[in-house]
């Protein structure tokens, strides 16, 4: 089904962006939060600096990244498309080499070029708690089914900033990296109210 989105993002300007959303029934929009025994990380929302997804102190990068899941009906695995929908579809992906994959925001990853030997996987996420609507439930963890491993935060850039990586079982790590869980939290459900395929966000 083809959807057209009329996005009025808190401004007077209305932007119409055609987007193909499988499934229909509107969009569930989420943001991502860390759960960790490390105090500085626990409860922090994930933002984006450049293409890196992580914890950033600067206001522009601290704004929580929002996504809507697109589920592969056969495997149950999900793609995490960022929201608001941009002219070029942006998808959260794990990008890296040697089993150490950086959580990244990638524009149209199917067409993106990476150096030989680089993994870019945006199709193997799992929303462990389904599509919940009640915020803050700790069971809502974001899992990665592409390799055996765990989520890890690495100090990055400015003091107090962290990048988020998926560390494969055999990947190298540094002593200042910290184990984390990534949980997702509902923000809103964008409903197609009159079923005409046009969604307006006030
Ligand atoms: C994880 O490890 C198990 C046991 O070695 C293996 O069977 C499975 O295929 C691995 N999963 C992935 C995604 O590599
Ligand atoms: C983004 O990352 C770069 C490189 O690590 C850093 O120099 C810059 O200050 C960061 N910006 C923010 C807003 O965190």
How does this model look, in words?
The strands form three sheets. Strands 3, 4, 5, 6, 7, 8, 9, 10, 13, 14, 15 and 16 form a twelve-stranded antiparallel sheet that branches. The protein is globular and about 55 Å long. The protein has a single domain, classed as Trefoil (Acidic Fibroblast Growth Factor, subunit A) (Trefoil). Helices cover 2% and strands 47% of the residues. The longest helix has 4 residues, at 59-62. The protein has one helix and 17 strands. It has one helix at 59-62, and strands spanning 2-7, 15-20, 27-35, 47-49, 52-55, 66-71, 78-83, 90-97, 100-107, 119-121, 125-127, 142-144, 149-155, 162-168, 178-179, 181-190, 198-201. The protein is an all-beta fold. It binds 2-acetamido-2-deoxy-beta-D-glucopyranose (2 copies). One 2-acetamido-2-deoxy-beta-D-glucopyranose binds at residues 147-148.
Q: How would you summarize what this structure contains?
A:
Helix content is 2%, strand content 47%. The chain is an all-beta fold. The strands form 3 sheets. Strands 3, 4, 5, 6, 7, 8, 9, 10, 13, 14, 15 and 16 form a 12-stranded antiparallel sheet that branches. It has a 3-stranded mixed sheet with strand order 2-1-17, with no helix packed on it. A two-stranded antiparallel sheet has the order 11-12.
**CATH class, anyone?**
Mainly Beta
Uncertain runs are 1-23
Sheet-strand content, in percent, reads: over 45%
SS-derived structural category: mainly beta
Signal peptide: 1-16
Keywords: Signal
Give keywords.
17 strands, 1 helix, 3-stranded mixed β-sheet, mainly beta, 202 residues, binds 2-acetamido-2-deoxy-beta-D-glucopyranose, single chain
């Amino acid at each position: 089904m083809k959807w057209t989105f009329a996005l009025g993002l808190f401004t007077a300007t209305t932007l119409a962006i055609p987007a193909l959303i499988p499934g229909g029934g509107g969009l569930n929009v989420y943001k991502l939060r860390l759960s960790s025994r490390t105090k500085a990380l626990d409860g922090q929302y994930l933002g984006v600096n450049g293409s890196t997804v992580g914890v950033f102190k600067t206001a522009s990068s601290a704004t929580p990244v929002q996504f809507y899941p697109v589920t592969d009906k056969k495997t149950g695995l999900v793609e995490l498309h960022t929201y608001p929908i941009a002219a070029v579809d942006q998808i959260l992906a794990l990008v890296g080499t040697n089993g150490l994959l950086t959580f990244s925001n990638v524009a149209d990853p199917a067409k993106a070029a990476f150096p030989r030997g680089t993994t870019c996987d945006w199709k193997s996420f799992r929303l462990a708690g389904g599509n919940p609507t009640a915020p803050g439930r700790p069971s809502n963890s974001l899992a990665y089914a592409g390799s055996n491993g765990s989520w890890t935060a690495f100090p990055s850039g400015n003091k107090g900033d962290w990048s988020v990586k998926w560390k494969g079982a055999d990947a190298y790590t540094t002593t200042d990296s910290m184990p984390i869980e990534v949980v997702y939290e509902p923000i809103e459900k964008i409903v197609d109210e009159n079923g005409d395929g046009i969604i307006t966000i006030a």
